[in-house]
Amino acid sequence: MSMSAQRPIGVFDSGIGGLTVVKALLRRLPNENIVYFGDTARVPYGPKSPQVVREYAREDTEFLLSKNVKMIVVACNTVSAVALDVVQKGAKVPVVGVIVPGAKAALAATKKKRIGVIGTVGTVSSNAYANAIRMLDKEATVFSRPCPLFVPLVEEGWIDHKATEMIANEYLFPFTAEKIDTLVLGCTHYPLLKALISRSMKESALLIDSGEATALEVEELLAKERMKNPSGEKPNLQFFVSDIPAKFAEIGERFLGAKMGVVRKVAVGKS
Questions:
Q1: Stretch 122-128: mean pLDDT, rounded?
Q2: Highest CATH level, class, for 99-211
Q3: Which architecture, in CATH terms, is 9-97+213-265?
Q4: Which residues have a Cβ under 8 Å from the Cβ of 89 and sit 6 or more positions away?
Q5: Ramachandran class of 199: left when φ > 0, alpha when ψ lies in -120 to 50, beta otherwise
Q6: 25 and 91 Cβ atoms separated by less than 8 Å
Q7: What is the band of 2 on the pLDDT scale with cuts at 50, 70, 90?
Q8: Same fold flag, 9-97+213-265 and 99-211
Q9: pLDDT at 192
Q10: pLDDT at residue number 1
Q11: 143, exposed or middle or buried, with CB in 10 Å at 0-12, 13-18, 19+?
Q12: Over 80: is that where the pLDDT of 3 sits?
């Protein structure tokens, strides 16, 4: 299938967190046009049943395909865990999730093969990271813990707040006993807490940002398929949400580390 290299990369997430993946993509691939969809009307996906997440993933994919994307990046850890096959089946363009790149990066970094994973309840209970890591290296030992309060704290802007630090210490303390040397940030919100998480871990573990690992995988895939955008023009970034565009733009600039411009509201699926 011949593809125009100037077509955009499509990225979707259940909400705002996937903007950390967009930030990583822009750092690595500054020429690429990007269409982002955040399903803010139905966020969060983490606590929902796999069947519902799979239906949402199909609808999110259809929306991005309507924007003529050349590739889809599933920035949502929950969708990557329980519905990546739905996206791959429906997309007919290359699809990259966040879990396998994060697992590969963790194994490349670990010396002791003792790896921690933190994420939402949905991501952790799916065992997706643990399974991906063990599939790549049977000798690796994986310890997983859900950290659900991190998401609302990040969205509240409490990045370096005393309350966030106390919660992080509570969540992460068990990892110190397990003597992990690598910790996968298995949620797109968590990179904003890197400094705080590192302090809570007494800097004993290398932090793996799945978004950064995913951006590297996207770059390698585009190069292999000769689909990198050759244009040196300023990239066109488009942001779509299913609800509350003004709030998304306000909070989103913290995640993206840049001004976002117009955020458009669109209807996706039946809701």
A1: 90
A2: alpha beta
A3: 3-Layer(aba) Sandwich (3.40)
A4: none
A5: alpha
A6: no
A7: very low
A8: yes
A9: 93
A10: 37
A11: middle
A12: no
**Which residues are within 8 A (CB) of 40 and not within 5 positions of it... i.e. 6 or more apart?**
15, 16, 241, 242, 243, 244, 247, 248
Catalytic sites, residue numbers: 76, 187
Q: Are 104 and 260 in contact (CB under 8 A)?
A: no
Q: Where are the domains of the chain?
A: 9-97+213-265, 99-211
Rg for the chain (alpha carbons), in Å? 18
Confidence of residue 176 (pLDDT cuts 50, 70, 90): confident
196 Cβ neighbours under 8 A, 6+ residues apart: 159, 160, 164, 165, 168
Query: Is this model's pTM higher than 0.85 or not?
Result: yes
Q: How confident is the model at residue 47 (pLDDT cuts 50, 70, 90)?
A: confident
How far apart CA 213 and CA 9 sit, in angstroms, is 16
* Close Cβ partners of 261 (under 8 Å, ≥ 6 residues apart): 237, 239
Q: Give the C-alpha distances (Å, rounded to integers) separating 92 from 53, 64, 70, 88.
A: 20, 12, 9, 7
252, two tokens = 């989103």
Residue type, 75: A
pLDDT tens-digit profile of 201-256? 988 899 999 999 999 999 999 999 999 998 888 899 999 999 999 999 999 998 99
**225 token code pair:** 């398929």
